[in-house]
Design goal:
538 residues; alpha/beta; Aspartate Aminotransferase, domain 1; Aspartate Aminotransferase, domain 2; 2 domains; 7-stranded mixed β-sheet; 4-stranded mixed β-sheet; 19 strands; binds pyridoxal-5'-phosphate; binds 2-acetamido-2-deoxy-beta-D-glucopyranose
């Protein structure tokens, strides 16, 4: 696991355990460089340490001014910002020897005559990364919605009641005669919930999951992604990311010291009826991204924002490459139950030889339409989940008990009736299908070209035929889709999301003609959206 801390140029940093063992130290690059201190908890750590830094006796201990002398857990939870430089520390054996309690971390720093580094500067430097550039799209667009009060088809959640069975369960938990329902529960997941999740997925992936070791409950799928990437990234590790991507993947990779390598889905056709299945990655290009530095690939199926449900052949192609290069897969499957006939969701963990290298991520928010509860999970082999548990334990520690209990009840109820059409895991897609088709129809009627999604509840639409109706010059953003969506919010009263936010720096132009709308909205609001657009173009 990597921990990051920003340190001024000219410093050397090293980390020691309570046993006085120097773990690692490395020089800094020239110029204004920040450094990264990290811990790697896992079997690979010791070997990697030697490979990256050479034998430990070559590590130079320099002037020692004590920076922190904290128990390791505290260090992990305190020191977590963005990685920016060439220093990396590994803790090879600590975990296995059970020496956590008496392990200590000491920062040893040296001044190289440029004013050097002192504790205060280190602290200040670690805060200055917090510039506007790092604020997410969502934060900015929620602000815009508050100000202009448009009809909001931006964010991905229903504007109507969540299914009664889960909300009733939560209400009952609040009044439960078991006083412990309102208190801390097991850190890696409330027992009733991990049992339900293990039972559910054991059935779906045809393998017996150990609820205590192969399931982790997190603060939304978001934290499962974060813990996966923090827990499994060493400095310089490459993660392959398919564009467009859920926008937190990249900062999460970077804050763990990793490097995103991008490959874009591109539509085979852009006129007539376009479906999410038309968006494909180039296989040669995908192959060329894998190399010795690859740590893994992040996939998202069903996909946000395109709605693509990856095919068996596509997943097998990716699986083959991950096996060839012996790398990981993080499979973000939060929309797993929202798939439209005749398409089928395929879990990459079920392909031969893939379970052992895959962390699969799910979300109660998306599964039960309760995004405000922020309960998610990861499942996968115990040795991979271990690193996530360490990150989780030292950041979130434990998720809320009542919501976990209620989600567990939701799973138990739905598992009973998996084969029935009223099972929520089936009925949700059936409820969304007419909304999808209605949105596609009105977008077409106003002259946009929608991509019909095979799954999920987002729709991309090419709005470029309407460009002459938008005063793009009134907005200042670099990318046209940002200008379009902001102008529409302010002047037409309809908010969508600019999809270039879901691309790396190189490929943004691929998405500038598009807007993303969400259709898990009340029929009356979808009708209102249609009306707004039709009035605007007429
Ligand atoms: C692809 C994808 N992954 C993860 C998440 C986050 O899920 P959660 O709300 O459970 O944190 C979202 C939410 O929009 C998403 O679209
Ligand atoms: C709630 O759960 C019960 C018991 O499984 C089921 O009969 C009922 O249909 C569910 N209600 C809804 C609205 O799905
Ligand atoms: C994946 O590898 C298997 C075994 O080598 C091969 O049979 C299959 O064709 C490959 N699939 C794809 C899509 O590349
Ligand atoms: C969007 O649609 C226009 C035609 O209306 C087309 O020329 C353009 O290539 C499309 N954009 C993309 C990125 O596909």
């Amino acid at each position: 696991m990597l921990m990051a801390h920003v340190v001024p140029a000219g410093c050397q940093v090293q980390v020691e355990t309570g046993r006085g063992r120097v773990l690692a130290a490395a020089g800094l690059g020239a110029g204004r460089v920040a450094a990264v201190a990290g811990l790697l908890v896992g079997r690979q750590a010791h070997r990697r340490l030697r490979r990256v830094h050479g034998p430990r006796r070559n590590l130079r201990a320099l002037l020692t001014s004590e920076f922190h002398f904290l128990p390791m857990d505290l260090f992990i939870s305190k020191v977590m910002p963005v990685a920016r430089g060439p220093l990396k520390f590994f803790n090879p054996r600590n975990r296995r020897e059970g020496g956590r309690e008496n392990s200590k971390i000491t920062f040893v720093t040296e001044s190289k005559g440029d004013g050097g580094c002192d504790v205060d500067r280190m602290k200040i430097n670690s805060l200055t990364i917090n510039s506007k550039k790092y604020l997410s799209l969502t934060v900015e667009y929620i602000q815009l919605a508050l100000q202009y009060k448009p009809l909001n088809l931006g964010q991905g959640f229903p504007d109507y009641y969540a299914p009664e069975n889960v909300t009733n369960a939560l209400a009952a938990v609040a009044k439960s005669d078991n006083p412990l329902m309102q208190q801390y529960t097991r850190g890696f997941g409330h027992p009733r919930l991990v049992n339900a999740i293990a039972k559910f997925y054991s059935k779906l992936i045809n393998r017996d999951l150990d609820p205590n070791k192969e399931v982790l409950v997190t603060a939304g799928a978001y934290e499962a992604l974060y813990s996966s990437l923090q827990g499994h990234t060493n400095l310089g590790d490459e993660w392959i990311i398919i564009e467009p991507f859920f926008d937190c993947y990249v900062p999460m990779v970077q804050s763990a010291g990793g490097i995103p390598r991008y490959i874009a889905l591109k539509p085979k056709s852009t006129s007539g009826t376009v479906t999410s299945g038309d968006w494909v990655f180039d296989r040669k290009e995908m192959e060329s991204l894998f190399n010795e530095k690859t740590k893994g690939i992040i996939i998202n199926t069903p996909h946000n924002p395109i709605g693509k449900v990856f095919t068996l052949d596509e997943l097998q192609f990716i699986a083959n490459l991950t096996k060839k290069w012996n790398v990981l897969v993080i499979s973000d499957e939060v929309y797993e139950h929202i798939v439209y006939e005749p398409y089928k969701h395929i879990r990459i963990a079920t392909l031969p030889g893939m379970y052992e290298r895959t962390i699969t991520i799910g979300s109660a928010g998306k599964t039960f339409s309760v995004t405000g509860w922020k309960i998610g999970w990861a499942y996968g082999p115990a040795n991979l989940l271990y690193n996530l548990q360490v990150v989780h334990q030292n950041s979130v520690y434990t998720c809320t008990t009542p919501t976990q209990e209620a989600v567990a009840i939701g799973f138990e109820l739905e598992m009973e009736r998996l084969e029935q059409p009223d099972c929520y895991f089936r009925s949700l897609a059936m409820e969304l299908l007419p909304k999808r088709d209605y949105m596609a129809k009105f977008l077409r009627e106003v002259g946009m070209v929608p991509t019909i999604p095979e799954g999920g509840y987002f729709m991309l639409a090419n709005w470029s035929a309407l460009e002459n109706k938008v005063k793009l010059h009134e907005e200042t953003d670099e990318n046209k889709d940002y200008r379009f969506t902001k102008w529409m919010t302010k002047n037409v009263g309809l908010q969508g999301i600019p999809p270039t936010a879901f691309y790396g720096p190189e490929h943004k132009t691929l998405a500038e003609d598009y807007v993303r709308y969400c259709f898990i909205k009340k029929d009356e609001n979808l009708k209102a959206a249609a009306k707004i657009l039709k009035k605007w173009v007429s």
